[in-house]
Amino acid sequence: MLIDSHCHLDRLDLTAHQGSLDSALDAARARGIGKFLCIGVDAANAPVVKGLAEQYADVYCSVGIHPLDLANNGQASLDWLVHAIDHPRVVAIGETGLDYYYHPEHAAPQQASFATHLQAASQSGKPVIIHTRSAKEDTLRMLREADLANAGVLHCFTEDWDMARQALDLGYYISLSGIVTFRNASELREVARQVPADRLLVETDSPYLAPVPHRGKPNEPQFVHEVASFLAELRGESLEQLQQSTTDNFHRLFPLAA
């Protein structure tokens, strides 16, 4: 079994499935994808992702405010976040984090939001799903300061091995998406070779970032199979080995989804 550890089911382009999410999920299940983690990005979609997790037995969800959505949605209060994650199908907090790539001037509100999510994680014991881009030092500093017992995952990882190593030392997992299959991702492939087998997750981040050979098309959960197959060959493992290790890792990190 494979698990898509990060997807946005409420945002999928379902044209290829005649508008049917059921059909898209069935296509993934037919390829051995056994569970899906549907990610929260703002207050408006929190009830949506919870509803999907309630509707499908193999779908779980997270709740949080994406750092790039703060301009439209504002800060999440700690009270709102703690209440919103108090749901049996919410297995994680996020996605949250820091992204300075487009707007480094927004660092302060992003850090305030990230701190709130980390505080909620500390109170609840639920792991955090972290989006980080061009914010290496601040991300690592805040993770050290939070010192979370159950840590979390740096999703759709695109940074260097030094950042991955420091995050691993803090207890975090590294999740890789279809970006690792891109022609210009040689540095990321070096990271992928070095992540310990017991700390690796796979994801699609669908509908974004479809892997080769689907690049340029809408991404969907079934394509986590392409990500896993590419990684297995890259790391010199069998696909069966990688499936087992990433599934075990997912259940260890997200015990509420077991």
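Above is the first protein from milestone M3; the second protein from the same milestone is given next.
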Amino acid sequence: MPPVEALFGVGLIVTFAYTVVGLTGFGASMVAMPMLVHLLPLRMALPMMLVYDLIGGVAIGVRNRKSVDRRELLRLLPFMLIGVALGVTVLVKAPERALLLLLGAFVLAFAGWSLLVRPPASPIAPAWAAPLGTVGGVFSALFGTGGPIYTIYLARRLQDKSRLRATISLLLFLSALARLASFVAAGLFTPPGVAALIALMLPCALAGMVLGTRLHHRLPAHRVIQAVWAILVVGGATLVLRNL
């Protein structure tokens, strides 16, 4: 178990990440992981965030399943599962320093792209489900950060915002289930302290969800997301510099 001061920092990060989720629907792991890995080993932070993602998926994604676009979901799902299997294999075998460097580079590149680039609104071909679903699955398994990659595809396939949100939510829930099965098989929940950490930080995740939901109509979501991307630029840069 990490020292008390580290646990306090972990609690603040988890609360902040799930407040952002409640405000914007933004992925909690994308927000939390670049900061958590400064305080926790990667292979301890990932199972913790995965459990909270599953709880959030039950609360948000499954209840909106009637709006899901099943055709697009089924296009992405097999490639996502392939990506998760590949990502867990890398997670188990690769040295942590290399993984943290990859996480920092990914967050830095994606945050910079999101702040500076306006993607075209024109639809993309269904064939893009294969590469984007696979890459999304890999990064979901490695860092829990596959959501933005799935969104790149779905946002240019679905025009209806309610269908888009419902499809992304259910896809992320299914991704979390696939990761849970893979993590259990790989023994990532067995190291000492993981279960206790998950239980200890659960109230922080729940408090963040409640707070974010209450602030949802009081704060402009697009401004919050811009601030989050700016924070992630700093977090990604420090990870890269630290692990070079």
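Note on the second protein: The chain has one domain: 4-243.
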